[in-house]
Please model this.
Amino acid sequence: MGLHRAILTPLPQIFPTVFGRALHAIGRISDEFWIDPKEKGLFLRTVNSSRSAYGCVFFSSTFFQNYSYGNATEWSPNGETVQFACKLIIKFSFQAILPLFRCLHTHERNVEKCNIYTDVNDCHIVFKLFCKHGVVKTHSLAFQECEPLQAVFAKHLCTNVLKVHSRQLSDMLIHFPTYQEEITLGVTPMKVCFKTYIEDEMEFAKATHTEIHLSPDEFEYFQVGVDSEVTFCLKELRVTGLILPF
Model:
């Protein structure tokens, strides 16, 4: 396999906060994630061990100062000519990458540019952070080439469809205690209910119960054809409120 390099030069200052926030969010779902470059942009994907929760964050090519995807053979480490020449899908551990973006506020103040590129000859992805005062930090992380990860479902066939702003959902979930493991979402054509779920009947009598009722007009889009109840892992559901518009 020949040399393939991919370099991304994200928008200054915006990148550390948004990209780091995305990593921290999907990192709550699983210990591993996939970087999946496409012609239209970059996908970050993850799935939990039981495959009951799937997360995907997409960064459009316009998010980056320079982004190209194809069979380019030249690259420029200064970010002036950025090409995405590799089409491999890579997987690696969150434990390896999260420390790079642990202090997002510090990165926002100090990091001026970040280049990301891969060299499949040694199976490493390199994050090069260009900081103030000429400081350059280079992190080389090992990765595993793998098959695509994609959730297969037909959204247009769903009987029930609810759309709500992520901030509103986050504000609602904050009323549930952090030790709560699961909550149940119940929907009817007239209302939506989020409530505490406890499987053990003995614990049910002792636990604090929380119920939040919402009317259909509180949603951006509301379509309920069948009365339903679905129980979610609260930790994974909170992820949807961690990536907010900036």
About this structure: The first helix runs from residue 14 to 26. The chain has six helices and 16 strands. The longest strand covers residues 111-119. The radius of gyration is 21 Å.
